[in-house]
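U., I forgot to send this yesterday:
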Amino acid sequence: MKLNKACLLKSTKTGLEELGYRELPDTITPAQGLFIKIIQEQYYLTLGFTISRYYDNLFTASFYISRTTTWGLVGLDIPRQIYKRVGSFLTLEERQQLLKGEYAEQSKGDAWWCSENEGAVTDFIDVVRMAEPRFLNQPSLLLDIDNSQFFKEFAELVKETTKAVKIVEKGDDVGYQFIPQKIIDGIPVAWFKAAEKVIQANNLILNVNTVKRLGADAYRQHLLSKT
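Result:
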């Protein structure tokens, strides 16, 4: 049977929670399962899964750290080092211990785990445990995030959206064009309404995707600030 998102989340959730991660309901980013951890109160370390399109039971995951909860944003002035596969931080000796087959014999390169192999999930959790501090200790990682104009501007949009929610919740007569037609990831529709208002007010690209991304990010940050 082909590995699916639900099974992958179920098998890894306990181990990742022990490392301080929290599962996020997510159908918006490309991740096939998403976990998050807050670093230094203002950076969001997300771990997103990828299930192989070519092999039924292979999976891997990538770290992504930024000032947003949206996994996998790239381009513009977003630093490249904030988005890395977990296996890229392993030594050859560690790869031989924690990987199987061709991935164990490569000194560098990608790393995948087979869900049908006994101990694969345990090995994967061990890799996340080992790789996380190495990922976070990359030179100038947080400084480069702080210097990103994209993240500065996006952080302001999130703040504006959080304020706009209070206005939206009181009721308004605005005709919304790009809000989702059904509940997404348990996010109240008011957050998407607020996101549309903010994007429009700032004369930015306004479509279903930009509204979903901003509304979801603002809601998640609001939710995480209470925990």
